[in-house]
Task: structure prediction
Amino acid sequence: MQHIDPTTLSFLRHRRSHPPKTLSAPPPSQRELMDLLELAARVPDHGKLEPWRFVVLERQTLDRLAPVLGQFVARQGGDEAAVEKAKSAFASPVIVAVVSSPVDSPKIPEWEQFLSAGAVCLELLNAALAAGFGAAWLTGPAAQPEFAEAHLGVRAGERVVGLIHIGQRGATPPDRPRPDVAAKTVFL
Result:
């Protein structure tokens, strides 16, 4: 019995991230966002440890943190352009920080748990795109431990794996060059 899903295969073949500067309000509702997060949590998770969590940054929080992020970048030695770029990174309608939150396990190494958190990022990105939103997976200075611990509630031993920007789609971005998969593949 074959279980081919041509619609999903087509989606994956044509999916594109939407740069945050192309996203507009309104963001998904809290109910829509919770649905997307439930889909994102359906990832490989050896040992069922759930070694990740979500921090949702809504508009009011993003507005409050944008100048703080700019100050953080300036203290790190960033020039005026870097400061403005950092502040504008919080212009998205909503951002979900996916946090790697490893669980002490004698069987599952931390690196494998970290990969599960990365899978959550991709699953959330694809769920948002499939639901008709624009979305992008970024990191940047807000994901740096010093900022994330001070302002995003990231605890010792945790790490921001991705900042998933979600909003209404603008124009579909042009496709970017894709890898030469044959050149990166070896069959043994």
User: Anything to note?
Assistant: The chain has a mean pLDDT of 96. The helical segments are 6-14, 30-40, 59-75, 80-88, 110-130, 145-151. The two ends are 28 Å apart (CA to CA).
